[in-house]
Amino acid sequence: MKKTIVHLKFPSQFARFINNIDKIEFEGESIADFVNSIEAIYGNIKERLFDTDGQVKPYLNIFIGKKNIKSLDGVHSIIPHGECVSLLLSRAGG
Questions:
Q1: What pLDDT, on a 0 to 100 scale, did the predictor assign at position 88?
Q2: pLDDT > 80? residue 93
Q3: Which CATH number fits domain 3-89: 1.20.58.480, 3.30.110.10, 3.30.420.10, 3.10.20.30?
Q4: Do residues 16 and 65 touch, judged by C-beta distance below 8 A?
Q5: Cβ-based neighbours of 53, under 8 Å, separated by 6 or more
Q6: Under DSSP, is residue 33 helix (H, G, I), strand (E, B) or coil?
Q7: Which pLDDT value is given to residue 92?
């Protein structure tokens, strides 16, 4: 299976659950592969990111580079080697 290296930008509320790492190599190339890899290492990541239907929680946005995975193929979106995966919290208000 292909190995992919990605850079990470997670808000501190989530970064602490992955020891504040800023880069990871994982087996595979999709968001699903990425999440499964960090889940195997750090645990309890999926439940923090996804609802019971496997969808990204409504107050979170996951980006590959500058593209939200919701506008791509969701968890099946491919992450190019060396790209940045960002997790952003949605904000409400005016």
A1: 92
A2: no
A3: 3.10.20.30
A4: no
A5: none
A6: helix
A7: 61
For residue 90, give both structure tokens.
Answer: 């949605």
Predicted confidence band at 1 (pLDDT cuts at 50, 70, 90)?
A: confident
Query: Does residue 86 sit in helix, strand or coil?
Result: strand
How far is it, in rounded angstroms, from Cα 18 to Cα 80?
A: 21
- Provide the 8-state DSSP code for 53: T
Average of per-residue pLDDT across 45-66: 92
Task: Read off the amino acid at residue 25.
Answer: E
Asked if 88 and 61 count as a contact pair (C-beta separation under 8 A), the reply is: yes
User: For residue 13, what are its two tokens?
Assistant: 């509320």
Residue 72's SS3 state is coil
Residues 6+ apart with CB under 8 A from 87: 8, 9, 10, 11, 14, 49, 60, 61, 62, 63
- pLDDT score of 74 more than 60: yes
